[in-house]
Specification:
- By secondary structure, the protein is mainly alpha-helical.
- The chain is built from 15 helices and 3 strands.
- A 3-stranded antiparallel beta sheet has the order 1-2-3, with helices on one face.
- Helix 2 packs across helix 4, helix 3 runs parallel beside helix 5 and helix 4 packs antiparallel against helix 5.
- The protein is globular and about 65 Å long.
Length: 387
């Protein structure tokens, strides 16, 4: 259940006063527009977290909607202590619970006690790990790209796709969701210049006004995002795909998009599995990679390249020693965005240009951290030449 699904005619009971049932009725078209306004990934996350909260409430004899502040605080304690989930995960559950209440026309439960649970859980994590401050993804720096790209086999469809995902994500300073949402029609090849990429919506563009970001050719062909994307587009065109999602699923039989894995095929693909029974095959499915899959591609390529956290953080040549699994898990889809911004700043790009290219909100604390990382002991450090 999400706040969108709760935006129905019977979502809120009539309140005492001059209102009638008609005042609380929401036409189907209005409900559909409300659903469209919430990003798909957010809606999916709310639905999953709300189901988890409802199940816990049923098991403990509590009421989920409307929930009391004590119930929510107890649930977050269950997540952080009994299940051992991270404080950030517990906080995300709190956001979903309050959002569903608002969508149902109910007052969100007071979050003071729940926030204190989250803060205490964060302090416990920091004390246990000997770590303070936010946990950040290891950046993929410009010097890491040759090894990462070399780990993606260029003679396979998946390798072509993964190279394009990684190099475009790095040059575009893209969020996972932005890469996953790209369509073939969003890519324009400007001969002699590079690519013009249309990002139709993003975290800082919820109203979907859209922006265009331009990517230059790289001097080194092996790590050129323009050439990588054009090679992938050429492969898609050879398969008869000139519209639809830019980055699609691929299975071991070479099926693309909705046909990958045979789950939505109407007939058996050559050498592939039979179609699954009992499915509305292909209905509403385009085989687009989800944001989580983008992160998995980046993490797997970094692991295959043998990158270690130390090598990535310093921007040095990657180490060939395979890192512990805990380090490998710190590479994620955000590694491209963080590393790309830091690399651009280190190369002398103006912070304002980098910020706008990466679509950070004005005054972003996250971006300010990247600037501080990139400048380090450089001329921008206020202690340089002080004494």
């Amino acid at each position: 259940m999400t706040e969108n699904e709760l935006a129905r005619p019977d979502a809120a009971p009539p309140a005492p006063g001059p209102y009638s049932g008609a005042d609380y009725a929401l036409p189907d078209e209005a409900a559909a527009l409300i659903r469209e306004a919430v990003p798909e990934n957010t809606a999916l996350a709310y639905r999953s977290r709300w189901r988890s909260f409802e199940a816990w409430c049923r098991g403990t004899g509590r009421v989920a909607l409307p929930a009391t502040a004590q119930t929510v605080a107890a649930y977050l304690t269950h997540l952080a202590v009994d299940r051992g989930l991270k404080a950030t995960t517990a906080d995300a559950h709190l956001t979903a619970i309050r959002a569903v209440h608002r969508g149902a026309g109910a007052a969100p439960p007071d979050g003071l006690a729940a926030r204190k649970v989250v803060v205490a859980a964060q302090r416990r994590e920091a004390a246990r790990d000997g770590r303070y401050g936010p946990r950040k993804a290891v950046p993929v720096m410009a010097g890491d790209l040759p090894a990462i790209v070399a780990a993606c086999a260029a003679d396979t469809p998946a390798g072509l796709r993964d190279r394009a995902v990684i190099l475009l994500g790095f040059a575009l300073l893209a969020r996972r969701a932005e890469l996953a949402a790209l369509n073939v029609s969003d890519i324009e090849h400007v001969h002699g210049e590079g690519l013009a990429v249309t990002i139709r919506a993003s975290k800082t563009d919820q109203s979907a006004r859209g922006v265009v970001r331009r990517i230059h050719y790289a001097s080194a062909e092996a790590v050129c995002p323009v050439r990588a994307v054009l090679a992938w587009l050429a492969y898609l065109a050879a398969q008869g795909r000139t519209t639809g999602p830019l980055f699609t699923r691929i299975d071991r039989w070479g099926n693309l998009g909705a046909g990958a894995g045979g789950r939505y095929l109407t007939s058996r693909a050559p050498g592939g599995p039979p179609p699954a029974a009992g499915r509305d095959r292909g209905a509403g499915r385009d085989g687009r990679l989800r944001p989580q899959a983008i992160g998995d591609i980046v993490a797997a390529a970094c692991a295959a390249a043998g990158l270690t956290a130390a090598g990535a953080l310093t921007g040095q040549a990657p180490s060939r020693e395979r890192p512990p699994s805990a380090e490998r898990r710190r590479y994620s889809g955000h590694s491209l965005r963080r590393g790309g911004a830091t690399s651009m700043l280190k190369a002398g790009a103006q912070p304002l240009n980098v910020s706008r290219h990466g679509r950070w909100a004005d005054g972003s604390r996250a971006f300010a951290g990247y600037v501080e990382e990139a400048t380090g002991f450089g001329d921008a450090n206020p202690t340089k030449g002080l004494l």
